[in-house]
Fold:
Amino acid sequence: MVRTRFAPSPTGFMHIGNLRTALYAYLYARSNGGKFIIRIEDTDQERYVEGAVEVIFNTLRQAGIDYDEGPDKQEGNYSYTQSERKPIYAEYAKLLVSLGGAYHCFCGKRNNTDGSMNKYDKHCLSLSKEEVAARLAAGESYVIRQNILSEEGVSEYEDMVYGSIKVPYKDMEDAILIKSDGMPTYNFANVVDDHLMDITHVIRGNEYLSSTPQYNLLYDSFGWQRPRYIHLPPIMKDKERKLSKRYGDANFDDFVKKGYLPEAVVNYIALLGWSPKDNTEKLTMEQLKTLFNVEGISCSPSIFDEPKLRWLNSEYIHSLTPQEFCDRATPFFDKSKIAGKVDYLFLSSLLIPRVEVFSDIPVLVDFLAEYTDYDLELFAHEKNKITKELAKVVLQSILPALEGVSEWSNENLFAALTVEAEKRAYKKAQVLWCVRIAVTGRVNTPGGATEMAVLLGKEESLSRIKSSIQRL
Structure:
């Protein structure tokens, strides 16, 4: 059975690149009838950020990525949090030393015996077993290093995306596997955990392409079967720079807070490095689980294009029902200047075709609460043959009819204005234009004249029309 994993470090927010890795690992497992595992790699306690584990799980939940095993879904007889597995790493490090694949080192973090910081010179590999035992017994600080057995030849493996990868042994270093505090490094812990958790396919960024041969030597030293590898191309900020968590780029939670739909963000992320055979762009999670395959993964970097994400998000928004839109948009209505002053559901029905991202909402609706001394030249409309003088006459003539509308609905207002236009030989467009400008002070509005009047209510609409007449 295919078993993939996502193994994030709890060092802050969920970066877009991390989320794509999780998504691809999830989709590969689901498209192959396999299982998807979450493992928390928190052995680097210096970089641990309080609350980051909750951020990871909240992000996965928002993104619609479910998992079969993890810290809160115990399936195996082991912990899915690395800091709780310290004795396991110590046991396998001891075994690796006995197999000749690692050795105790007392030289300090990276220094050679001559004090240089170049590739470690294997000084402690020459220590006798007796000397090592004596120094351990004396309580000397040590690390455990991997033993790269030879500097001749190359290590080779097959990546499912990039093909054959070869790295000369002379380019490898006896990396630290167990630190002086007894905690494992990523180099060691991920190999041990992937083996014990029966991970069949390791999916991660292509920055690990060149270090994977060193991990493979650990598998070989233990006599374990290597997993299959799927390395992913980078996501770029532009042609020169990668997206970087370090510089605060592309935080999933920030996009959601800005008003992007989580499903649209996930859809877009899926297309950063992968494409379906028919190049369809709007894909639900269920479609992604069916269509995802390794053949569609590109070796080339992808540039994160927020305008493209914005377009894709608008496609999702435009397919929402008014109630769905209202439910999602309410937090943004509440942050706008019309908070609590208009019918959100009715306004939602007007905004659906006009909104690309929910953070657009305040810009689109704040004018409803900002009725000021607008420019009276807005009434002038050459195509409809309207002047300021005509606008005053139109508004004065239709005001009694509007005052007589008892049920202030879009249908009743439109009917009343249509009757007045016919009665007084005005063009319907002239009447509606004059009312729109009078009640909003704007040329462009989310809806037409009668819809804006419904939003504002009878009392406010009539007050604005009277004010406009007086100014004209």
Observations:
- The first helix runs from residue 16 to 31.
- The CA atoms of residues 43 and 183 lie 6 Å apart.
- The mean pLDDT is 92.
